[in-house]
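Usage example:
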Amino acid sequence: MLGYVGRRLLMAIPILLGVSVVIFVTIKIIPGDPIASLLGPTGSPEARAALTERLGLDRPLPVQYASWLGHTLVGDFGTSIARRSAVAPMVFDALKNTLILTLAAAVLAMILGVGVGTLTALRRTGPLARIGNGFALFSISVPQYSVGLLLIIYLAAGAGLFPVSGMYNPSLGGGFVDLFNHLILPAVTAALVPAGIIARMFRSSVLDVMSMDFIEALTARGLSRRRVMAHAFHNTVPSLLTVAGLQIGYLLGGVIFVEAVFAWPGIGLLVYQSISQRDLPVIQAGVLVSAFAFVMLNLIVDALHGLVDPRIRTSH
Amino acid sequence: MTAVTEAPPGTLTAPPRVARRRRRMTSSATVAGAVVGVIVLVAVVGPFVVGDPNAGDPAQRLLAAGTHGHLLGTDGQGRDVFARLVDGTRLSLLAGLVPVLFAAIVGTGLGVTAGLSGRWAHRSIMRTLDVFYAFPAVLLAIAIAAALGSGISNSIIALAVILVPPVARVAETETRRLVDLDYMEAARASGASRGAIALRQVLPNVAPPVVVYCTALIGLSIVYAAGLSFLGLGVSPPTAEWGLMVSDHTQYIYTAPFLAAVPALAILVASVAFNVLGDGLRDLLDVRGEARA
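Running the assembly step on the lines above writes:
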């Protein structure tokens, strides 16, 4: 098991290097002359040359990349253009909040997805089945920004059931209950799309397992339906984990809209605010950190995968 | 290819319930196809039918739906919401369709090449694409679009980049499945060049699953494209576009909540229509593959 996790960790290294190359490329494709935009139109040729040398822009690209990577690896993400402070603390603070929202949404999406998936797999007709199928269809198509807005309009602003935005109420001084109240609407909004996808995948996975020979064998042996179902569900766990891993990536990306709508102080909100200010160091650091978190979360999912399905550990 | 086959009487295979379910799937896909047709029609002729989407009278701002000849009311600048919705259909649809089209071409090219190549070329192409899977897709699109600067062409490029890897993976999987089949062996034995095999033997067989997959991607792409505009990375005001309308109308959610719901519903309807159509096509052509970006 440890060897399996170690192998997965080693495999993550080239992926993370690739991620850093892609981010570096997005820095380099920025149109326009970075020196001119830093110095303004009045910069003298000498000042230009000096700044070019100081920023290392006269060096070959691979050297520039290596130097950038060196800084990034020790947590130096540069300085924010708009806020004039170091990017790293900002991004890591925001990452913590984003992970809280992502994990809450992931749990919610799993519960909803598995519930609806099971329901629609076992029940083909009737109003409940129809509601389940409708949910699986519509939830994967909804734009999160509009669902978030609608929830704000009707449940937060309208009915006053939930806070409209933010993570804590400053007058209450924070605390877990306060956080939970603020978390509900954003988490529901973020969970909708993954819940729909998990429901669809889980439905077909339950149907697949239910049509296997061992189910018939167990039934023939006289096991109760409930016991048979327990065995069936055990066999759906690996495919469930695969979808869950994919959906974490979807969540980490999708929360940008949710955070923007609900003013949740995470990576998404940070990136959103930085877009209008064209604060690229913050945007790039935000994306880099999210990708890193995604790769790490996937490693955890892979490890769980190996834990529940011994076949995975031996094959590669 | 028929999805609906009634079992002959007396046989135990194909329980009727499954057959009925399939047929219903196809009819909902037909409805979805019709909705897609209407959306495309609106996108093509709509802008010629409605008036100037930017003409607004500030004195008539935030009118309720149905007043003074404004079917869906007016927005914060007194512009006709219906006209803007119709006029914005073209851009919103293009911003979602073009990236998928681009991804379909490039992704199929990469996937088929990888599938037919030797070990090294295959590995280097697929491992490179794996890197893109390490990003939360939307965030990568945002990083690219933000670096390139706002504008619809940049948002299209950004979305195309994130859609290529999943399409390439579908094409590669299909190609690998074909490589070992007898008819491919026959083609190779008859001396057909690699390019000829790719074009004549592989492409026709890879195309159906790729088309089905891409149809399902269009819904996602429309939502993402509008999302980029919503964040300020797509078209710039005062152009009429659904995502921009959502973000523009957000400031009135307390006074006129209906306003924010209108473009949001347009995005939802378009996205659902393409997704259902994609599902229907998948059932009809009986191709597998549920991977999603």
